[in-house]
C-alpha cells in the first residue's frame, strides 16, 4: 500500500490579521520564520511519508498555492539547503484541486480521496490542516505511521494531541480501550468545552485535542461516507469518474452538502467503534491567534516575513511580539505588545486583545478601509 | 524703528525620537500637520511683524534650513493658499547664519543682532525658538508688539506664558510691579521648580513660564552683553565687523563662551531691574515630549508627516497618538499608545513612557543601531 497526503487549505484566520488576510490566508504565510509558508512546511513535513500530496484550496488561492508548491519542487530539485546543510526531502508528486466554491472539509477531502483512488484503490490517505505548526517532526511521523497501521486494519484513524493546558478553543477526543500499543479506540468526539469541563477532561488523562488529522484507506473513507451521506458520496464519485471534465465538476460540486469531516463521518463512526486515535505529544499548535503565535516563538520577540532579527529593538517591553516587513521596529515601555508590519499596513495591539483581533477586519470595513481587510 | 526676528534653531529634541532626530531635529519637522515645519511656522508667525528674519542654525542643518526657507519664499511669491484661500504673509528678508560649532543661545543671538545692527543700528530684535507651537497668533502678535514697546523704552523684554498647569519642566519668571499696562518688571528668572514649588508659583499668580522669547534694541542687547561678558561681546563684534570673512568667523567663533541668553544677560539684568515681561496666554507649547504633543493635537489621533487622516484606524484605543509616513496604521485594544512611523523606522511606546523616550537613542546605539539615532 502507499500513503497519500491530502491538505485542505482554506480559512482566512482573521485572528491573525494582518498577517493572515482574506486575500492571503495564513497557510500562505511564513509565520514561524522557517523560510517556508505554513502550507509549504506542511508539505515538507509529510514528504518523508507521502507518495503524493494533494492540496485542496479555493479557486482564489489556486495560483498562490501552485506557485508555492512549484517553489518547493524547485528546492527539492536543488542540492543542499543553505540554512541546514541538509538535503530537502523529495516532495514527491504535488497536485492541486481548486474548489469552485467552499463546501467545508468533507467534500474537499472526499474528492481528493476519490481522485487518488482512481490511480490506487488500495491507497491510504491522510488529511492534515495546511496551517498548523508541529515542532517535533519525528513524533509526528511516528504518530502518522501508527495511524496508517490502524487504517490498514480498517479504522478511520485520527491523531489526538496530548493537551498541555485545559484549552477551550479545541474539540476533544475521548479515548477508549487500547487496540494495539499506541493506538486506542475513540469513544467520542466532543465539542469545544467550557473551562471547568476542559479542566476535567485534562485531569482525567482520557482526552486529547482534535487537530483534524484523519488517516484511512480510501475505500474505507469513501465507503463510510456513502453509508452516512450517500448523496455527497455519489456527487464526489461522479466528479472523480469524469475527472478533467470541468463542467461536471462545477455542476456536481454546486450540489454537494457543506459539512465538516468530523460531523460527516468521524462522530457517527466513533459511535460504532470504527475510529481509532493515536495519542501524541509533538509540539502542535494551530497558531490560532497572536497569543498562540507568541507562545510558539518561545516568548521572544519574533521576526519574520522578510525581516531579520536585528530589525527589532525592544526596550523595557517584555513579552512583545513583533513582525517586520521592511522597516526596523523599536518598541519601548509597552508590555505584551503585538506589532505587525506588513506590505501595506502597520498593526499595533496587545496580547490581552488577541481574541478580539478577529473583529478588526469588520471594523476596518466600517471605517471605509475595506482595502485592508 | 524696525523689528527683526532672530530664530536660533538648534537642539535635537530626543524626547520626540524618531520624529526628531540628531540628523533631522524637530524644528525641521511638521509635527502639527500644518503643512509646514515648526521652523517654517515660526517664520510665518513672525512675518507680519518682522522686516527680516535671521535663522541661526548648526552647519549640519544649514542646507535643510535654506531649503525650507526657500520653500516659504516660493509660497509667499505665489498667489493664494489652496487651503485657506488667504494670501500667505510676505515673509520679508530671510537670512541664515550657520554656526561652525554649537555655542548655546547667547553667541547665536548676539551675532545675529550684531549683523542686523550693521544695517540698522536702531533695530529692535526679538529671539524666538524654532520649535515651539503657538495656537493663538493674534495673542502672540499683541504680546510681541507690547514687548517691542518695552524694548523701545530700553528694556530687555520677555514674553511670559501664563501657566495652565504647575509644570516642572520649565523655568519660571517672577513678575514685579507694572511698568505700563500689560508690561511688568521682572523680579527674577527662577530655575525649573520641584512640584510643590511649582504649585506655589502657579497659585500665587505672580509667575509665568519662561519660553525663551527676548525682545530688545540691538544697542541695548549688545551693550548689556558687553557689560556682563565683554570677551564674548568683543568676539561677536569682531565677526560682525568683518562679516563675510569666513576665516575670521571660524577663528573668533571658536573662542566664544558657550552660554545661554538667560544666564548671560536676562538673569543678571533682571536683578538690576532692566528686564520687562509681557504676560500672555496664547496656546503655547514647547512640544517637548509625546505627552505635550498629544495634548497639542487635542487628544485625538494625530496624523502628519505625509499621512492623511484616514490612514489611521483606532479601535478600542482611547488616547492614542499616531503619526504615519507611508503605511496606514491600525491600533486596537491599546490605551494611550504612541505609534510613530517615519521613513526608516516604526516606533511604538505609550504616554506613560514619554519622559523616557529621550533614552531611546542611546539604547539604539547599544543595540548596534546607531543608524536609527
UniProtKB/TrEMBL annotation, chains A, B:
It is an enzyme of class 2 (transferase). GO terms for molecular function: mannose-1-phosphate guanylyltransferase (GTP) activity. Residues 5-295 form the Nucleotidyl transferase domain. Its EC number is 2.7.7.13. The keyword Nucleotidyltransferase applies. InterPro entries: GMPP_N, ManC/GMP-like_b-helix, Mannose-6P_isomerase_type2, NTP_transferase_dom, Nucleotide-diphossugar_trans. Keywords: Nucleotidyltransferase, Transferase. Residues 311-360 form the MannoseP isomerase/GMP-like beta-helix domain. The keyword Transferase applies. Pfam families: ManC_GMP_beta-helix, NTP_transferase. This is Mannose-1-phosphate guanylyltransferase. The lineage of its organism: Bacteria, Bacillati, Actinomycetota, Actinomycetes, Actinomycetales.
Amino acid at each position: 500500500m502507499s500513503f497519500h497526503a491530502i491538505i485542505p487549505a482554506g480559512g482566512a484566520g482573521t485572528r491573525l490579521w494582518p498577517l493572515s488576510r482574506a486575500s492571503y490566508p495564513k497557510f500562505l504565510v511564513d509565520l514561524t520564520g522557517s523560510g517556508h509558508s505554513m502550507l509549504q512546511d506542511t508539505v515538507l513535513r509529510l514528504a518523508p511519508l507521502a507518495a503524493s500530496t494533494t492540496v485542496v484550496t479555493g479557486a482564489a488561492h489556486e495560483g498562490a498555492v501552485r506557485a508555492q508548491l512549484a517553489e518547493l519542487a524547485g528546492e527539492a530539485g536543488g542540492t543542499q539547503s543553505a540554512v541546514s546543510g541538509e538535503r530537502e526531502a523529495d516532495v514527491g508528486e504535488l497536485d492541486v484541486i481548486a474548489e469552485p466554491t467552499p463546501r467545508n472539509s468533507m467534500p474537499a477531502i472526499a474528492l481528493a480521496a476519490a481522485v487518488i483512488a482512481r490511480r490506487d484503490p488500495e491507497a491510504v490517505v491522510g488529511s492534515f490542516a495546511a496551517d498548523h505548526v508541529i515542532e517535533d517532526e519525528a513524533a509526528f511521523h511516528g504518530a502518522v505511521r501508527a495511524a496508517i497501521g490502524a487504517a490498514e486494519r480498517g479504522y478511520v484513524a485520527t491523531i489526538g494531541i496530548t493537551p498541555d493546558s485545559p484549552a477551550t478553543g479545541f474539540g476533544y477526543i475521548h479515548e477508549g480501550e487500547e487496540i494495539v500499543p499506541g493506538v486506542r479506540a475513540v469513544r467520542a468526539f466532543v465539542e469545544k468545552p467550557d473551562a471547568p469541563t476542559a479542566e476535567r477532561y485534562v485531569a482525567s488523562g482520557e482526552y486529547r485535542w482534535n487537530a483534524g488529522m484523519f488517516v484511512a484507506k480510501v475505500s474505507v473513507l469513501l465507503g463510510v461516507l456513502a453509508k452516512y451521506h450517500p448523496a455527497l458520496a455519489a456527487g464526489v464519485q461522479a466528479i472523480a469518474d469524469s475527472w478533467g471534465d470541468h463542467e461536471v465538476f462545477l455542476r456536481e460540486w454546486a450540489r454537494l452538502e457543506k459539512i465538516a469531516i468530523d460531523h460527516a463521518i468521524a462522530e457517527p463512526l466513533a459511535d460504532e467503534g470504527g475510529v481509532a486515535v493515536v495519542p501524541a505529544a509533538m509540539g502542535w499548535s494551530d497558531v490560532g491567534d497572536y497569543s498562540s503565535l507568541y507562545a510558539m516563538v518561545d516568548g521572544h520577540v519574533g521576526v519574520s516575513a522578510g525581516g531579520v532579527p536585528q530589525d527589532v529593538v525592544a526596550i523595557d517591553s517584555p513579552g512583545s511580539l513583533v513582525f517586520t516587513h521592511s522597516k526596523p521596529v523599536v518598541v519601548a515601555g509597552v508590555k505584551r505588545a503585538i506589532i505587525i508590519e506588513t506590505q501595506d499596513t502597520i498593526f499595533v495591539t496587545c496580547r490581552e486583545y488577541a481574541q478580539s483581533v478577529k473583529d478588526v477586519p469588520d471594523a476596518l470595513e466600517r471605517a471605509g478601509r475595506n482595502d485592508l481587510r
